[in-house]
Design goal:
The protein is α+β, with helices and mostly antiparallel strands. The chain has 12 helices and 9 strands. The chain has 2 domains: 4-123 and 265-293, Porin chaperone SurA, peptide-binding domain (Triger factor/SurA peptide-binding fold); 148-243, Chitinase A, domain 3. The longest helix has 24 residues, at 38-61. The chain starts with a strand and ends in a 10-residue tail after the last strand. The mean pLDDT is 90.
């Protein structure tokens, strides 16, 4: 059952909607959330959604709404900042990031309302120059670090009749110097076979413990020994090591203004949100987040 996780007056967020917001939040991260940090991550997103609901409730109380012109201007800002040729490209980029047109519109509408309320009641908004954003980015770019990753190719030989024959043929080809890509295309039984086993950049945490162990110690251009997995044999070929690096300024630029204001006016914001919590009916059913509730 998709129960109500948060309530602010008549406004609610269901568990299903919260999971969607978690997915959106993950898209903005540089890498996957370590399992040990998952509870903290969920708690932060929960608090963020609650703060948003409080501010949106205030917007409703003030009878402020988002017009089509407001939404169009927000979309145009995204287009210009990313140097997209047209709005259709904006929507295509959003879909590639897992956001449908409707979800993107809803997200922008929330942002517009929140900016209006905070600007009207907490702090005066002003235009921030690219120079200011770049200066700020330089001080916090470590927060946007993309962890070390590995560009890999794989070859999977499935259990069943013919496994040993395929294994002998594949390993013989590799021993003779045939490029891994060609061997994978010929013998692999994974969906990646047609791409020569290309997995693209992979974080070690995305691999099973067995495959992580096989990857350890490999140099670029080297192939692991066969790893026995439940469905057969798995080979990894290390193409290159991608060092940890900060996400480029242009990729995170849209996230910076809000963060700058929040840091500058942190005490004002906290006091304002506490006031809203006391003003409205707020119910948090965090029991739904426990494993047995799913």
């Amino acid at each position: 059952m998709d129960g109500v996780l948060l309530r602010v007056n008549a406004q609610v967020t269901t568990l299903g909607e919260f999971k969607q917001r978690l997915a959106e939040a993950r898209l903005e991260l540089a890498g996957p959330v370590p399992a040990a940090e998952e509870p903290i991550f969920q708690s932060r997103v929960l608090e963020s959604v609650l703060e948003e609901m409080l501010i949106l409730e205030r917007a409703r109380e003030l009878n402020h709404t988002v017009t089509k012109g407001d939404l169009d201007r927000s979309l145009e800002t995204i287009r210009q900042r990313n140097k997209f040729p047209d709005l259709e490209t904006v929507y295509q980029a959003a879909e590639q990031a897992g956001l449908s047109r409707e979800v993107l519109h809803a997200k922008l509408e929330r942002q517009i309302l929140m900016e209006w309320v905070m600007g009207a009641e907490v702090f005066p908004r002003r235009d921030i120059t690219d120079w200011e954003l770049r200066q700020y980015y330089d001080t916090i770019q470590e927060d946007f670090t993309v962890p070390e990753a590995f560009r890999l190719r794989e070859m999977v030989l499935l259990s069943g009749p013919g496994l040993e024959v395929r294994r002998d043929a594949a390993e013989k080809s590799l021993a003779e110097g045939t490029p891994f890509e060609e061997v994978a295309k010929r013998y692999s039984q994974s969906p990646t076979a047609e791409k020569g086993g290309d997995l693209g950049p992979v974080s070690p945490g995305d691999l099973s413990e067995e495959l992580q162990a096989a990857l350890k110690g490999l140099n670029p251009g080297e192939t692991s020994a066969a790893v026995e997995v439940k469905h057969g044999l798995h080979y990894l070929h290390l193409v290159e090591i991608i060092p940890a690096h900060p996400r480029p300024f242009e990729e995170v630029k849209d996230q910076l203004p809000d963060r700058m204001f929040r840091e500058q006016y942190k005490d004002n914001i906290e006091s304002y949100l506490e006031g809203l919590k006391g003003r409205y009916l707020v119910v948090i059913n965090d029991k739904l987040l426990k494993p047995e509730a799913e």
